[in-house]
C-alpha cells in the first residue's frame, strides 16, 4: 500500500527501493513467476494509454515499481535546484536490462531508451549550467553541451520509432519538437563556447565560423520553439542577443582588422561530448536500501545465489556485446554526421520538376489581377509627372529670386552705394525674403523626397520584371527557375551513392534486430530449475554450457560489425566522386531558392510599392499646390520690387543739382552707342543728374 500510494518526496523513493528489494527476495524463493504455481494476478495502469494491464508474474510488479522509481526521481529532479548531476536514468536502465519488455508498451525498449536519454540529457543540462556559472574553460563547456546534444539525439531516435509514436499519440509530436529544439539550442551553445575558445587562441577565422554556426543553429531552435512558454522564448531571445552580438563583433573585427580566412565548419574538428553525469545505481540486494530480508527463513539461498551469478554472467555478456555495438555505432554516427548525407534528399531532383506551392500561390493571386503591372507603371508615371512639375516651379522661383538679386545689385551700383561684400547679396525686400525662405524650405523638402522617389523608382524597376513573369504563363515561370544539368556519369554517381547509403541503413537495421533478439534471449533465459538439481561444484560448467546458446547470434553481430569498415570505405569512395555533383547540385539549389525567394519578394513588394507610390503622389500634389502659390507670390513680389527700384531711381535723379560747367559741354547730340564705341564706360560719364537730356527715350529714362 505504501509503494502504491507513495509520497512525492525522497522518503517515497526509499519506500519504492525497499519494496523492490523485498520483492526480489520473495520471487527467488516462492514460484510466483509467469505460469508458476504461486503466481497471482498483478494489475497496473499504463501511464500513457490509461489502460489496466494485468500479468500473473511477480516480475511485472517489480518492473512497475522500478518504472515508478524512475518517474519519481525525475519529478524530484524537476523540483530540485539544478545543480546535481545524479539522475533518474538508473531505474530505467536497470528495468531495460533486467526485465522483459513485453509487459506493457510503456516498458518497451524504445520507451525506456527514451526515458533514459531524457533523464541523462536533463542531468547533463544541470551540469552544463553549473559549469557555466563556475566559469569553466570554454572547451570543457563546449564538450559538456555537445554531450547534451548526443543524449537528446538518442532520445529523438527513440521518439521517431513507430511504436513510440503510436503509444504517445499527440504528445509524441510535442516531445519530438521540444527535443529537436533542445538539440539545436545546445549545439548552438557548444559552438558558442568553441568560438570563445578560438577567440582565446586568437584563431579569428575559426571564431567567425563557430559563431556563425551557433547563430544558424539558434535560429533553427527558435523556429521549433513556437508554442513554448514565455520563459523559453525569453531565454532564446537572450541567447540570440549574446550569440548575435558575438558573431557581428567577430565578423567585423575579422573583416576590418585580422583578415583571416574563415574555414568551412566541416574542416574543423567536431566537438566530442563529455558524459559527466551518472545514473543512480539500483542494487536490489543492498541491505542498506532494502532493509532486512523478511523472507530469509523461507527457502535455502543456494539456488537464488546461483541464479544471481548466472544473471551476472548474462549481464556481462550483454555488456561486452553492447560495448562493441555502441563503439561501432558511435563511429558510424560521427561518420554519417560528418558527411551530412540523407538518402531521401541526396539528389532532390524532384523539386525542379514543378513550381513550388508558395510560387504557385503568388501566380494564382496575380492571375485574377491582370492589371497589376499596368497599374504600377501608371502610378509611377503619374508620380514622375507631378515630381517634374514641382521641380519646374521651384526652379522658376529660384530664377526669379536670382534675377531680382542681380537687378538690386545693379541699382545699388548706379546709385553709387558701396557694393555688398563678395558673395553676399544685397538685402531683399521683406516680401522676397519670405519667398526666399519658403523656397529654401520647399527645396530642402523636395531634395529629401527626391532621394526617396529615386529609391522607389529603383525598387519598381527591380520588381516589375518579376511581376510580369509571375503574371505570365506557368511555363515561363518554370523555365525561369534554375534546374541541374546532369550528365549520365553524374546520374550514375548519384545512383551508386544512394545504393551504398541503402546498404548503411540495412546494416543499421540488422544490427538493431540482432541486438533486440539477444536481449529477448537473455530475458527469457531462466535456468533456476536446472540449478536446483545441479551440484554446486558443477555450476561453472553449467554456466559455460548454457551461455553457448548465445554464440550463434554473437557471430552474426560480429559479422555485422566487421562489415561496417568495408561499407564506410565504399561510402567514402562514392562520396569523393559525388563531391563535384554535390557542389553543382548545391549551387543550383541555392540559385533555385534565391530565385523563388526573389519572385515571392517581388509579389509581396507590390502592395508596398503601390502604397508608397500613392503616398508620393499625395505628397507631391500637395507640394505642387504650395509651389504654384509660391510662384505667384514670387512673381508679384518681383514686380513690386522692380516698381520700387524705378521710383527710387527717378527720385534720386531729381535730387541731384546740375554742376557748374568747367569745360565746354560735350555735344549732346552724341548718342549712347557712339559713347560706347568711343571706349567710354560708366565711370567716364558724369552723374545722370548733371546731364540735361531733353526728350530722352523712355528706356533710357528708366535706366
UniProtKB/TrEMBL annotation:
Residues 656-667 have a biased composition (Pro residues). One of its GO terms (cellular component) is endosome. It is found in: Cytoplasm; Endosome. Residues 387-417, 497-524 form a coiled coil. InterPro entries: ALIX_V_dom, BRO1_dom, BRO1_sf. Keywords: Coiled coil, Cytoplasm, Endosome. Residues 1-332 form the BRO1 domain. Residues 675-691 have a biased composition (Low complexity). GO terms for biological process: early endosome to late endosome transport; endocytic recycling; protein transport to vacuole involved in ubiquitin-dependent protein catabolic process via the multivesicular body sorting pathway. Residues 649-703 are annotated as: Disordered. This is PTN23 phosphatase. It comes from Podilymbus podiceps.
Amino acid at each position: 500500500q505504501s509503494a502504491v500510494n507513495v509520497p512525492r518526496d525522497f522518503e517515497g523513493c526509499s519506500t519504492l527501493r525497499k519494496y523492490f528489494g523485498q520483492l526480489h527476495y520473495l520471487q527467488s524463493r516462492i514460484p510466483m513467476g509467469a505460469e508458476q504455481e504461486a503466481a497471482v494476478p498483478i494489475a497496473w495502469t499504463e501511464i500513457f494509454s490509461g489502460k489496466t494491464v494485468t500479468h500473473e508474474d511477480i516480475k511485472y510488479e517489480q518492473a512497475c515499481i522500478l518504472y515508478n522509481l524512475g518517474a519519481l526521481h525525475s519529478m524530484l529532479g524537476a523540483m530540485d535546484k539544478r545543480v546535481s548531476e545524479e539522475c533518474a536514468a538508473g531505474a530505467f536502465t536497470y528495468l531495460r536490462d533486467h526485465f522483459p519488455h513485453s509487459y506493457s508498451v510503456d516498458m518497451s525498449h524504445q520507451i525506456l531508451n527514451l526515458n533514459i536519454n531524457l533523464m541523462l540529457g536533463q542531468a547533463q543540462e544541470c551540469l552544463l549550467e553549473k559549469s557555466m556559472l563556475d566559469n569553466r574553460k570554454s572547451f570543457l563547456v563546449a564538450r559538456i553541451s555537445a554531450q547534451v546534444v548526443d543524449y537528446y539525439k538518442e532520445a529523438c531516435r527513440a521518439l521517431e520509432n513507430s511504436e513510440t509514436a503510436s503509444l504517445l499519440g499527440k504528445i509524441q509530436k510535442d516531445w519530438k519538437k521540444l527535443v529537436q529544439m533542445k538539440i539545436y539550442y545546445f549545439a548552438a551553445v557548444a559552438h558558442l563556447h568553441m568560438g570563445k575558445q578560438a577567440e582565446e587562441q586568437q584563431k579569428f577565422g575559426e571564431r567567425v565560423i563557430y559563431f556563425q554556426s551557433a547563430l544558424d543553429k539558434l535560429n533553427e531552435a527558435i523556429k521549433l520553439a513556437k508554442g513554448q512558454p514565455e520563459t523559453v522564448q525569453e531565454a532564446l531571445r537572450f541567447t540570440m542577443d549574446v550569440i548575435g552580438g558575438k558573431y557581428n563583433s567577430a565578423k567585423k573585427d575579422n573583416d576590418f582588422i585580422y583578415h583571416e580566412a574563415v574555414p568551412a565548419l566541416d574542416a574543423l574538428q567536431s566537438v566530442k561530448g563529455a558524459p559527466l553525469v551518472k545514473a543512480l545505481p539500483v542494487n536490489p540486494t543492498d541491505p542498506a536500501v532494502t532493509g532486512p530480508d523478511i523472507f530469509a527463513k523461507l527457502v535455502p539461498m543456494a539456488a537464488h545465489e546461483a541464479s544471481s551469478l548466472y544473471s551476472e554472467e548474462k549481464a556481462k555478456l550483454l555488456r561486452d556485446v553492447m560495448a562493441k555495438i555502441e563503439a561501432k555505432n558511435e563511429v558510424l554516427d560521427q561518420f554519417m554526421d560528418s558527411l551530412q548525407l540523407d538518402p531521401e534528399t541526396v539528389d532532390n531532383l524532384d523539386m525542379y520538376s514543378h513550381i513550388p506551392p508558395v510560387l504557385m500561390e503568388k501566380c494564382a493571386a496575380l492571375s485574377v489581377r491582370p492589371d497589376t503591372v499596368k497599374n504600377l507603371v501608371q502610378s509611377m508615371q503619374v508620380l514622375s509627372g507631378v515630381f517634374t512639375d514641382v521641380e519646374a516651379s521651384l526652379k522658376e522661383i529660384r530664377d526669379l529670386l536670382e534675377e531680382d538679386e542681380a537687378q538690386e545689385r545693379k541699382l545699388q551700383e548706379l546709385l553709387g552705394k558701396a557694393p555688398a561684400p563678395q558673395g553676399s547679396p544685397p538685402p531683399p525686400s521683406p516680401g522676397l525674403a519670405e519667398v526666399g525662405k519658403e523656397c529654401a524650405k520647399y527645396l530642402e523638402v523636395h531634395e529629401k523626397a527626391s532621394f526617396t522617389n529615386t529609391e522607389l523608382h529603383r525598387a519598381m524597376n527591380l520588381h516589375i520584371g518579376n511581376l510580369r513573369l509571375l503574371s505570365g504563363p506557368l511555363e515561363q515561370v518554370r523555365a525561369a527557375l534554375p534546374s541541374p544539368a546532369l550528365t549520365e556519369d553524374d546520374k550514375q554517381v548519384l545512383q551508386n551513392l544512394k545504393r551504398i547509403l541503402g546498404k548503411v541503413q540495412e546494416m543499421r537495421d540488422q544490427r538493431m534486430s540482432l541486438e533486440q533478439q539477444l536481449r529477448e534471449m537473455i530475458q527469457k533465459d531462466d535456468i533456476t530449475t536446472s540449478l536446483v538439481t545441479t551440484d554446486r561444484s558443477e555450476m561453472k560448467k553449467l554456466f559455460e554450457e548454457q551461455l553457448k546458446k548465445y554464440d550463434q547470434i554473437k557471430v552474426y553481430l560480429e559479422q555485422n560489425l566487421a562489415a561496417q569498415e568495408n561499407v564506410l570505405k565504399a561510402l567514402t569512395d562514392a562520396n569523393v566522386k559525388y563531391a563535384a555533383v554535390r557542389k553543382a547540385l548545391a549551387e543550383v539549389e541555392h540559385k533555385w531558392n534565391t530565385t523563388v525567394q526573389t519572385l515571392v519578394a517581388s509579389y509581396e513588394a507590390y502592395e508596398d510599392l503601390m502604397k508608397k507610390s500613392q503616398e508620393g503622389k499625395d505628397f507631391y500634389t500637395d507640394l505642387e499646390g504650395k509651389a504654384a502659390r509660391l510662384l505667384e507670390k514670387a512673381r508679384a513680389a518681383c514686380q513690386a520690387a522692380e516698381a520700387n527700384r524705378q521710383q527710387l531711381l527717378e527720385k534720386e535723379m531729381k535730387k541731384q543739382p546740375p554742376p557748374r560747367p568747367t569745360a565746354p559741354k560735350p555735344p549732346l547730340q552724341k548718342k549712347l552707342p557712339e559713347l560706347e564705341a568711343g571706349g567710354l564706360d560708366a565711370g567716364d560719364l558724369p552723374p545722370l543728374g548733371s546731364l540735361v537730356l531733353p526728350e530722352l527715350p523712355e528706356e533710357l529714362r528708366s535706366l
